[in-house]
Design a protein that fits this description.
Layout (H helix, E strand, L loop, with lengths): L1 E5 L5 E7 L7 E5 L11 E7 L2 E9 L6 E6 L6 E6 L2 H5 L12 E8 L3 E7 L3 E5 L4 E6 L5 E5 L4 E6 L5 E5 L4
Antiparallel strand pairs: 1-2, 2-3, 4-5, 5-6, 6-7, 8-9, 9-10, 10-11, 12-13, 13-14
């Protein structure tokens, strides 16, 4: 298990990893937060072949793309994927009709290969950890709940809706 650790009322500084079974070991991992990254982004820790991978999801400005960066203790963050939300594409147009800022409002890890990213005013994205791709899987993303089911199913259900949409993940 893990918990993202922030400075008091401030940016992300690292992660606390701990075991939920005896001996309940805990370890603070100070992550290198240098460079042009979203220090207030959403952190996900995934296990990969016995090692922890620290993935940061966020934006560097209101109109920027959504980025995934892998964080490390001993080296600079590495870019893994990017996604251009609708607002990013429309920002250069004289009148876009879209004036709602896109923000990362949540992440949901589905080990071992997926992270679902909720973007307010845009969509829900799936980050494939192995392929390092970030693609939309559900639109719109506002007021949509992501639920992990048994047998590799992910359900998307809208607030006050009577239907759920299922996405089978399979073994990958």
């Amino acid at each position: 298990m893990y918990a993202a650790i922030h400075e008091k009322h401030g940016p992300l500084v690292g992660a606390l990893t701990f075991r939920a079974t005896p001996p309940f070991n805990a370890r603070f991992v100070a992550l290198n937060m240098s460079g042009d990254i979203d220090r207030y982004g959403e952190l996900v820790t995934m296990e990969d072949n016995g090692h922890s991978r620290y993935l940061l999801f966020g934006k560097t400005s209101l109109l920027s793309k959504v980025f995934v960066r892998e964080l490390f203790e001993d080296r600079d963050p590495a870019p893994r994927a990017a996604y251009a939300p609708l607002l990013y594409e429309l920002a250069s147009k004289p009148f876009s009709g879209q004036n709602v800022p896109v923000a990362v409002t949540g992440v949901r890890a589905v080990p071992p290969h997926s992270v679902f990213v909720t973007l307010a005013a845009d969509s829900i994205l799936r980050y494939d950890v192995g392929a390092a791709t970030l693609k939309p899987v559900f639109h719109p993303g506002t007021n949509v709940r992501v639920t992990v089911g048994h047998g590799g199913l992910i359900a998307f259900s809208a607030f006050n809706a009577y239907k759920a949409f299922l996405l089978p993940l399979g073994s990958k």
